[in-house]
Amino acid sequence: MIVTIDGVAASGKSSVSSGVARALGVPYVSSGLLYRAATLLAHEAGLSPHDPALVPHLEAQPLRFEPLAGGNRLWLGTRELTADVQSAAVDAGVSAVAARPELRAWVDRRLRALTPPFVAEGRDMGTAVFPHAQAKFYLTASARVRAGRRAAERPEAVDEIEAALILRDERDRAQSVPAPEAHVIDTGPLSLQGVIDTILAALPQGAAPARTS
Ligand SMILES: Nc1ncnc2c1ncn2[C@@H]1O[C@H](COP(=O)(O)OP(=O)(O)OP(=O)(O)O)[C@@H](O)[C@H]1O
Ligand SMILES: Nc1ccn([C@@H]2O[C@H](COP(=O)(O)O)[C@@H](O)[C@H]2O)c(=O)n1
Question: Which residues does the UniProt record annotate as the domain Cytidylate kinase (predicted)?
Fold first, then answer.
């Protein structure tokens, strides 16, 4: 079973996917983390997103991706990259990397090599990467709501975060479209648990965890 949870930046994809995955007892897979890793490693190697040497450089790195239900972790050999890729600098550069078809193919190869069941989150999980997924969701919320939530995690001011989110949504627009059959959920008025419960209730029979009442 594959469940896809796509959506705009900071709409709650990782937190919601983790909650849904834990309820189902399966891992979740953050595709954005791989685009973020590519961005950080390109920057550290002084390679532009357009450089034909970028994918060979990435292929040569000892990059290890751990998709677990409680959280996804990234390693470069013994160096953990998980926190390093969640920076404003990576946020600002990642869309240019993600726009490169050869980079998308590099990420997609790694994702399709994973063995289901899992919950996959990103922008194009339900459309391009796992079009055969059993259930598809797409999360939205206003930029202001998303910026307010993110401000609790990052040092930048809420106005600066909101402007960066709007810009990133615009740059990601090409690959961030809900699948026609996706359940679109506005997370603005819902708590995190409320979104998780909405998704669990909409899963097809057999995919949802057994109810205890
Ligand atoms: N429905 C909700 N109600 C309140 N807070 C939420 C809700 N959903 C997510 N959050 C909070 O919003 C923040 C952003 O969520 P999260 O990191 O899961 O988003 P994301 O879509 O994965 O972000 P990104 O696109 O940058 O990877 C987190 O602090 C999370 O706890
Ligand atoms: N399926 C995806 C997932 C992500 N991206 C790009 O990566 C950036 C970071 O993703 P987050 O989920 O961590 O916000 C995102 O802004 C996109 O540029 C993508 O293209 N496709």
Answer: 3-203
